[in-house]
Design a protein that fits this description.
The complex is a heterodimer of chains A (429) and B (846). With 429 residues, chain A is an alpha/beta fold. In chain A, strand 7, helix 22 and strand 8 form a beta-alpha-beta unit. In chain A, helix 14 packs across helix 16 and helix 21 packs across helix 22. Chain A starts with 14 loop residues before the first helix and ends with a helix. The mean pLDDT of chain A is 92. With 846 residues, chain B is α+β, with helices and mostly antiparallel strands. Helix content of chain B is 33%, strand content 23%. The mean pLDDT of chain B is 95. The chains are: A alpha/beta (429), B alpha+beta (846). At the A-B interface, helix 3 and helix 4 of A face helix 2 and helix 12 of B.
């Protein structure tokens, strides 16, 4: 049965990788936690199945290309399986290793290469360019082009998917050139990681985050040398760029003596916390990365322990909370956002069935695996629709965009908001 | 390998999206949750019953094995294609087709996830109790195939206790329904046989199940003990005190340590063992139950008692328990999770034996037990690459099987035989028992295409037959022992003599079981009693009552033997609380007409080693074999029992009330509606169990009854009203029992009121059964009356049978009026075991 027909890639034969594989006792407890298994129903699209496929590659039974690549590419990396696993399999490490190998060994087409170059290299690390693009898109929305494009419906699939998640864009962006002072008695100083897409496309969320921090007595600093967190790069197999961006961010933040480094996007936060791991073998940055990572906190995590003023403004709304996978499964921040929501007077928090199930956004997944992402989104919207919520609260950029699209796709009336937007609204009274 | 031709014909049945033949992708289908391996030739995902049927026909035509698979979480290799063939994946059969609140039933497809079903029914305040550890992923179809249990079996039983019917596709592609929505169909209990048959008899597509009310409250505690023995004694003491906790789980020190290192929930790692005990019921009863549990435990050396005060604390206790399996992965990449069952009282000595075995083989072992059921899971960690250690682990496992069997146990309580244990079946089953199972397999699957090679050992022990009696019995045959019964039956059969059991019948020798009337074994600590089939129910109950026990049966006829009750599947209204005859019969010793004496089942509540043979004799009217000895579950007599009698002027009012009250029923042991003396109708609602539960439930009932005229009584209970009504009518009256789905019961009775009013009648509301009694001068009127009741019952998917009528009318009136879908299988089974039809001729449909 272990006949070796194919030469396994080196990354699959390391003792660490083998040990991580062996941890899986294939009990199958992960199956229903996996969004792709739930929509596709095939073992090869489940965490257990993927691990079994990894074993088969490691044993040289099947090749890296073809079936293996196809099914591994379908993984969202939501890591919901990791939360469900009774044996503590570190699926995150496994999938990251596999993704790297898959990237190294594949030759993307020219269009994909261009799109990646454009998105990951030319846009995401450069906030000014992103903001400019956002302005163009806003114009596109304002002059009615968007309506026209959507009505004609002729865009090729990936572009269409990209266009579909375009949210209503902000009129202006926050000026980060000066720190934002504390309102009332000053209780501390924090640095804000404003992100790339979050700022450009969902700028109002950042504004709300800053205001809520100020109201609770925090002076908010904006280290201007910061850049994109690099999660998209790492998860598409570009570790080199990811490490480069990590170093830049560490340099940007490490000087200031901040109480915490705050971010408001589950995926970015998870990545920032991962820096210690990512740069563990970097002689210059390993220690700094550890220091940096220990200060990173999601806004909800921070607020739960640092809230001085209760939000007072009544918001009469039925609210459901849609967990960000990376906030929940990687950062393990689960209770805090819910506790904060419950503080807002008038809000009725209704848990949906499986709030922990991925919405299908998953970084660039919804652009790469359009059909599966749509199926997963549909399932998610069913759960949401069943709650009859007026507001869907989320805590991550990708989820936010995806859910706005989902609401439109499912024909719901609900609004999508970041947790801090709701808090901010309540503070305003 | 599939040839191109075959593949082509396959794609005429399903689309290519429903088919996997890529060897690289099939790698993921070569296993389940064990280390058994087998590569299928293809995997298909049928989406309709019709496709399943066509696929099976296709496979039968090409003689290709079919292996049904759900989520692949099995623990015995049951869904592994070790002989090749086509895997039928049922993941697309994931619809709950019907959830009926009023009738407390559910109809769902085989691919529905156990936990999805449970979550769904809980939204209606109902409960589907089987909760295997894999329930988060495992499918109902897989649960049925392995007769899944879980931690709550002690109080609530296993899968087979809830399934009332199955839709299956047979090995020839034919689609049949076994049982259905109603209870107690007049047919052999093939449903019972299918459950636990590991996909070797038919492919289940749909399940019909009854549900119970979800317990209102639950309280969980854990306690430490010096040793496993001490904890085992405490479990026995709880049972002896007549307490029925919802669950009793035990962990030994080693497992505690492994788990604690992993999840840090504060397990008492310094202790020798710990128990997790959970009680459930109404809020008012939880403290009282828990206090009593604590008192018993403390008296038996418990310390560090921790009662969960909040839901989080409860979750934490369970998190510790449920992490056990996974925590093992930290010690070694693989572990043998052994599954065996012994009578509860023998847990400690079995554990000693297993410790000794593992020490001798230089293996580590830790234990998780479902202590209330005697179901043990010794787990032996090992490193797969260490071939010597692997061999020792398997050797130890084999010896553990012997240790369980030697203690009247089973080689598998809930994981199934599959591949893993097939060769060990012969440790447990003798030639006669295995041959009886093989007979069943041959009938259902003559070409051995359904999951071939599972369950049965490659070498079967020889089949020994008992030699016929030298002197063929004449007139009446009164065997003194099971052996003599088998020898006598063989002799009579050889002499072409028809045999009538406990009944005079022209042209047949009467076989009386009156001498098989001993109490063979009384084991209150293990909650069972073994008796000769000829003993009367009265005698058993009198014997048990002195210690506060009972068997959960009631008969209107004082002289009825226990064999008679089982053979006629006589279920009183209290089955709503305690289950039916099929649920209480653990084992049977049966004499067949060819000299075989078959021991079927074991004296443990969880046993999935092979087919559940005892079930097939329940309701078989003595047409398959002679029950000589049976083992029955015993239960404590209720501490409190109270009946509310509602006086009613109008039948429809009573029926509507009955439907409403059924939602409240948790401790209820009967809900019957019948004609009254002081008022035109009465509805009796009996609740029994712990006093606080009974009071709390009756308070809910009173609230629902509002301004109705209600009185309270200790006797008669609803069940006693049933008993007295049926037991006190003249022998020339007709008794007809109709059965429909409980949800349809009221509709049926309302529509048939005029016919029912012709005589006396009683509606067993919770069970969808109605007993109609009437006397007639002439047979034509009687026949017309029966037909008039029968036709609408059949139209509703139910039945109407004649339980009693004057002997002279037996030829004129069809007692059954029912044609089971699987009648041909019943006939084939009859032909296997009683080919010439000597046993109880004319007594049943076959």
């Amino acid at each position: 049965m272990t006949e070796s027909l194919h030469t396994p890639p080196p990354a699959f034969t390391t003792p660490q990788f083998r040990r991580a594989l062996d941890q899986c006792i294939h009990c199958g407890m992960c199956l229903q936690n996996c969004p792709t298994y739930v929509v596709l129903g095939k073992e090869a699209d489940s965490p257990r199945g993927r691990i079994q496929l990894m074993r088969a590659v490691a044993d040289g039974r099947i090749p890296l290309d073809g079936t293996f690549r196809e099914h591994l590419d379908l993984c969202l990396s939501c890591l919901s399986c990791q939360t469900a696993c009774p044996s503590g399999v570190n699926y995150g490490t496994l999938i990251d290793t596999v993704r790297l190998t898959l990237e190294e060994t594949r030759t993307p087409g020219i269009i994909e290469r261009f799109m990646r170059w454009l998105g990951l290299k030319q846009m995401m690390p450069h906030l000014n360019r992103l903001r400019f693009a956002a302005k163009l898109f806003r114009l596109y929305q304002l002059v009615g082009l968007q309506k026209l494009v959507r009505a004609i419906n002729l865009l090729p699939k990936p572009l269409k998917a990209m266009e579909a998640i375009l949210p209503p864009l902000p009129a202006n962006h926050f000026d980060y050139s000066h720190p934002a002072p504390a309102i009332g008695e000053k209780r501390g100083t924090v640095a804000f990681f404003y992100g790339c897409l979050q700022d450009a496309f969902l700028g109002d969320v950042n504004k709300a985050t800053i205001r809520v921090l100020q109201r609770n007595g925090f002076e908010v600093h904006f280290p201007l040398m910061q850049t994109c967190c690099g999660a998209a790069h790492l998860h598409t197999g570009d570790q080199t760029s990811a490490r480069e961006l990590a170093r830049k961010n560490i340099d940007a933040f490490i000087q200031g003596n901040y109480d915490a480094i705050i971010n408001n996007a589950g995926g970015c936060g998870a990545m920032l916390k991962e820096y210690a791991h990512l740069l563990a073998d970097d002689p210059v940055y390993a220690e700094k990365a550890k220091q940096f990572a220990s200060k990173v906190q999601d806004i909800s995590e921070f607020l739960v322990s640092h809230l001085v003023h209760q939000p007072q403004g009544v918001i009469h709304a039925r609210v459901t909370y849609s967990d960000s996978c990376h906030l929940r499964n990687v950062q393990k921040v689960i209770k805090q956002p819910r506790e904060l929501l419950k503080l807002i007077p008038g809000i009725e928090l209704v848990e949906m069935q499986s709030p922990d199930r991925c919405c299908g956004s998953a970084g660039v997944y919804n652009l790469m695996q359009v059909d599966t992402a749509n199926d997963i989104l549909d399932l998610r919207m069913q759960d949401i629709a069943a709650t009859n919520a007026d507001i869907i609260v989320t805590t991550n950029t990708g989820c936010h965009l995806q859910l706005i699209y989902g609401v439109r796709k499912a024909g719901l009336k609900a609004r999508v908001m970041h947790l801090v937007e709701l808090l901010d609204q309540s503070y305003k009274g | 390998m599939l040839t191109q031709d075959k593949l082509k014909s396959l794609t005429q049945i399903i689309t290519k999206h429903q088919l996997i033949t890529d060897p690289a992708e099939m790698v993921v289908y070569e296993m389940d949750a064990t280390w058994e391996r087998g590569m299928p030739d293809a995997v298909v995902f049928p989406q309709s019953v019709e496709q399943v049927s066509r696929l099976v026909r296709w496979a039968a035509e090409h003689r290709i094995p079919i292996i049904a698979r759900g989520a692949g979480t099995g623990l015995s290799g049951g869904a592994v294609a070790d002989k090749g063939g086509i895997i039928l994946e049922f993941s697309k059969f994931d619809h709950v087709l019907e959830l009926d609140e009023a009738g407390r039933s559910v109809v769902c497809q085989a691919g529905v996830i156990n936990q999805t079903l449970d979550t769904l029914v809980k939204t209606k305040g109902l409960y589907y109790p089987p909760d295997p550890a894999s329930g988060r992923s495992a499918t109902i179809g897989g649960n049925i195939a392995e007769n899944a249990g879980g931690p709550h079996c002690f109080k609530y039983g296993v899968t087979s206790n809830y399934v009332t019917g199955l839709d299956i596709v047979l090995a020839d592609g034919r689609f049949v329904r076994l049982g259905g929505r109603a209870f107690d169909y007049p047919e052999y209990d093939l449903t019972g046989l299918l459950i636990g048959s590991e996909g070797t008899l038919g492919l289940v597509t749909t399940m019909y199940a009854r549900l119970i009310r979800n317990p209102v409250g639950v309280k969980t505690m854990m306690a430490a003990f010096d040793s496993v023995e001490a904890a085992g004694r405490a479990v026995s003491a709880i049972i002896a005190a007549g307490l029925i906790p919802a669950t009793m789980e035990m962990l030994d020190q080693r497992v505690m340590q492994i788990v604690e290192d992993y999840v840090h929930v504060g397990l008492p790692v310094h202790a020798g063992a710990m128990l997790i005990i959970e009680v459930d019921g109404f809020a008012a009863s939880l403290d009282a139950q828990m206090n009593e549990v604590v008192e018993v435990l403390t008296r038996h050396g418990a310390f560090d008692l921790r009662i969960a005060q909040t839901a989080e604390e409860r979750d934490q206790i369970w998190y510790g328990r449920k992490s056990a399996a996974g925590a093992y992965a930290r010690i070694a990449p693989e572990r043998l999770m052994v599954d065996c069952t012994v009578p509860r009282s023998r847990i400690a000595e079995t554990l000693h034996a297993i410790n000794e075995i593992c020490a001798r083989h230089n293996l580590m072992v830790g234990y998780i037990f479902h202590a209330g059921d005697g179901n043990m899971h010794p787990s032996i960690p090992y490193v797969p690459s260490d071939k010597d250690q692997v061999a020792r682990a398997w050797q130890a496992c084999e010896e553990i099987m012997h240790a369980a069997v030697a203690r009247d146990g089973s080689i598998t309580g809930e994981h199934g035989v599959g591949i893993e244990k097939r060769e060990w079946m012969s440790f447990m089953c003798d030639g006669a028992e295995l041959a009886a199972m093989q007979d069943i397999k041959d009938i259902f699957d003559p070409h051995n295409l359904l999951n071939p090679g599972k369950i049965f050992p490659s070498q079967k022990p020889p089949l020994e037959r008992i030699a016929p009696l030298a002197a063929v019995p004449r007139d009446e045959f009164v065997p003194q022992s099971a052996q003599e019964a088998a020898a006598g039956l063989a002799a009579l059969a050889q002499a072409n003599q028809k045999i009538s059991i406990n009944r005079k019948c022209a042209g047949a020798i009467t076989l009386s079981t009156r001498a098989l009337n001993r109490i063979v074994k009384y084991a209150p600590e293990d909650l069972y009693i073994t008796v000769g089939a000829g003993i009367t129910l009265d005698e058993i109950q009198t014997f048990l009552a002195k210690d506060g026990w009972q068997v959960p049966f009631v008969s209107p006829w004082r002289k009825m033997t226990i064999g008679g009750i089982i053979a006629t599947n006589l279920n009183s209204p209290q089955r709503m609380r305690y289950g039916a005859v099929r649920d209480a019969m653990l084992c049977a010793k049966v004499a067949l007409t060819d000299g075989r004496l078959v021991r079927a089942g074991r004296v443990v509540v969880k046993n999935v080693a092979g087919y559940d043979l005892p079930k097939v004799f329940v309701g078989s009217y003595g047409t398959l074999g002679l029950l000589t000895e049976v083992t029955l579950k015993i239960i404590p007599k209720p501490r409190a029992q109270k009946t509310l009698i509602v006086a009613l002027d109008d039948l429809h009012q009573g029926l509507a009330l009955g439907q409403r009250l059924l939602r409240v029923a948790f401790t209820a042991s009967a809900m019957v509606l019948t004609k009254g003396a002081a008022s035109p109708y009465v509805l009796a609602y009996t609740a029994e169990g712990y006093p606080h539960d009974v009071e709390a439930e009756l308070d809910e009932v009173r609230t629902l009854l509002r301004d109705a005229r209600v009185s309270e009584t200790s006797s008669p209970t609803g069940t006693e009203m049933w008993r007295d009504l049926l037991g006190n009518i003249s022998s020339d009256a007709l008794i007809v029992r109709t059965g429909v789905a409980p949800k349809d019961g009221a509709r049926f009775v309302a529509a048939q009121a005029t016919r029912l009013e012709r005589g006396a009648y009683l509606v067993d509301i919770a069970n969808g059964l109605t007993y109609a009694i009437a006397s007639f001068r002439n047979v034509d009127d009687a026949q017309a009356w029966v037909a008039a009741l029968r036709q609408p019952a059949l139209a509703m998917g139910g039945y109407a049978i004649v339980m009693q009528m004057p002997d002279v009318w037996r030829d004129a009136i069809d007692r059954w009026g029912y044609r089971p879908d699987a009648l041909d299988l019943m006939q084939k089974l009859k032909a296997k075991w009683d080919p010439a039809g000597f046993l109880n001729p004319g007594e049943f449909i076959v």
